[in-house]
Amino acid sequence: MRIGVDELESGVRALFMACGAGPVQAASVARHIAWCESVGRANFGIERIPILIRRLREGVVDGRGNMAFEALAPSLARLDAAQGFGFDAAERAMDHAIDLARATGIGVVGVKDSNFSGCGAYYVNRAAEAGMISLALSNSFPKVTAHGGLKPVLGTNPFAFGAPARDGRHLLFDMATSALAGSTVREHMAKGIPLPEGLAIDTEGQAITDPSKVAGGALLPFGGAKGYGLSLLVEILSGVLTGAGIGPGVASMYSDFSRSGDNGQFLLALDVSRWMDWESYFTRFETLLALLHTSGNGVLFPGEIRWEHRQRALSEGVTVDGRRWQEILKLNPAP
Question: What does the alpha-carbon distance between residue 169 and residue 188 come to, in Å, rounded to a whole number?
Fold first, then answer.
């Protein structure tokens, strides 16, 4: 079935409010989920709703918590997310980083005591719309080995960056620093598709191809030592520096209902207009994009395909599994 983007957003907002979230946090969750569905990132869309509702109901996410900023320097701040939804925390943090960047040229906000924050591309897109080049990082529950190791000690630790484009189809790069994302493992499990070798290992270091066995083993960092190093950067900036959980200090969203996630996020915004006038920037940026396309037929810049999805979704609605959507609506406790 197809649902209009606005209808989807309002439906998700109403559901989360009915399940106990306050209006501000419910709105942030809904914006995030609707945007992800509209740009073809369904793995961060409605499929996440049941686990998010469960964590809300079991009290390990505080959907009404009072988040508070702490000023650290003219360009730096920290947000205590008060165990609230990571979607709301990261959105507030990026918006605050944008405000700081408008005032000083650069804004950096770290987040502690947060939870799963979803798709990093959403946050860097907000910054791009405000004329900022940006980064969005978050640490997560350990599923990934250190390079050369066997035991999972790091999360999939997503890394995202974005840059504004003249036509609003901004460059958006978003990836897990593991060889594959946890959502991809779940998708393979649901479809009964084996994993290629080289992505996950068991406790003896042997390749895992059965996705159902990954939970008993570990994912590998992408690109060996390179992905490992980038994952460490994410952990240092979003975990160590912010005061959030580190490694096993971050709770599993799917299996640990004894505590809040204590994820950390790190959001950075850089004001392009402090470096050059907008015409100069767009001309130089478009020169780079044109250069990418000369590499070969079918070459895309990061995020390019997302805007095709977005345009269609805004005109035709997003495609969702009708049965799944009806099951999600049944989570609403209201008669």
Answer: 31
CA dihedral 265, 121, 332, 328 (to 10 degrees): -130
Q: Quote the domain boundaries for residue 51.
A: 1-57+303-335
* pLDDT, tens digit (0-9, with 9 covering 90-100), for 238-292: 999 999 999 999 999 999 999 999 999 999 999 999 999 999 999 999 999 999 9
Contacts of 42 by beta carbon, 8 Å cutoff, 6+ apart: 36
Query: pTM surpassing 0.90?
Result: yes
Q: Which tokens in the block code for residue 73?
A: 């320097």
Both 157 and 10 in a single domain?
no
Assess if residue 187 is contained within a domain.
Answer: no
Does residue 191 lie in a domain region?
no
Confirm whether 82 is domain-assigned. Answer: yes
Nearest to 148 by CA among 230, 205, 73: 205
Q: Give a yes or no: residue 19 inside a domain.
A: yes
Residues 147 and 221 sit within 8 Å (Cβ to Cβ): yes
CATH number for position 155? 3.30.1370.60
Tell which residue, 236, 211, 231, 208, has the closest CA to residue 221: 231
